[in-house]
Amino acid sequence: MTEYVKVALMGSGYAGKSTLIKLLTDGVQKLETNYKPTPGMSCGTITIDASTKVSLVEMGGQAHFEFLWPDFLRGSTMVVVVTESNPKAVLKTRQLLEKYKDNLLGAKVIAIANKQDLPGSMRPESVQDLLGVPTYGMVAINPKERLNGYKLIVNGLRDMVQIAA
Ligand SMILES: Nc1nc2c(ncn2[C@@H]2O[C@H](COP(=O)(O)OP(=O)(O)O)[C@@H](O)[C@H]2O)c(=O)[nH]1
Ligand SMILES: [Mg+2]
What we know:
This protein is of the alpha/beta class.
């Protein structure tokens, strides 16, 4: 029987959550780069091993969806906080983490400092100092980052669920 593990992507609109789902999801080849705000929810599947699949889910980031976040976060084995890497965005993300910290209890939480390709990006270590959770740099529009991103999810889940090999 296949077990589905829920991994929720959390973060402001425009951070790169949908792009990350496309980067990591089984069988998606082409990365679209024109921005469309996610209406409601978006979801993709990652196969980990014969009996484990990950449901990677994103909640629409716009403020008018925020009241749904606690429900959306519930039952997540892992929460990936996605942020743009400019200082203003990182501070906004810190506020979000503070506001929803009770909803993150029991989940493995990591952050992705996305858009490292843009000038003026903070380094992942500096973002980590502000966010207080393990933080990894990413360029979600670069297909070469697919394996890196995949490893972040799998290694994060290793503490939480049984994974073969
Ligand atoms: N330069 C750059 N742009 C990115 C990167 N990741 C995402 N984007 C762009 O940022 C915009 C918002 O991305 P999206 O995934 O829709 O954000 P979401 O609202 O968090 O789902 C899109 O135009 C993406 O192409 C990145 O690593 N670098
Ligand atoms: Mg989106």
